[in-house]
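@channel sequence for tomorrow's demo:
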Amino acid sequence: MKPVVQGLAVGQFTLDAEMLAAQFGWTVETLHDFMRRGLVVSTVERGEGDDDGKWRLTMRCGNRRWRAIVRADGEIETQSFDHSPPPPARR
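structure tokens (generated this afternoon):
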């Protein structure tokens, strides 16, 4: 089975646009539009200690947040979607 998340290099990932858009309840075109407009923000965090070899990926748009824990083989171990306060504005 092809991994859901493709690692490009350490800490860099490519996500399937259809899968990610579906998590937010959008079309792929809407996801791409929001990304072009800078409305989608992502973070990648490397696991340490017991989580060594895993990564936490977070995608936000407004108050919507998708998170996934990704194993070293690129498979998503767990994922969640919720509504949360947006991150503080950058200055």
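heads up for whoever presents: The chain is about 20% helix and 40% strand.
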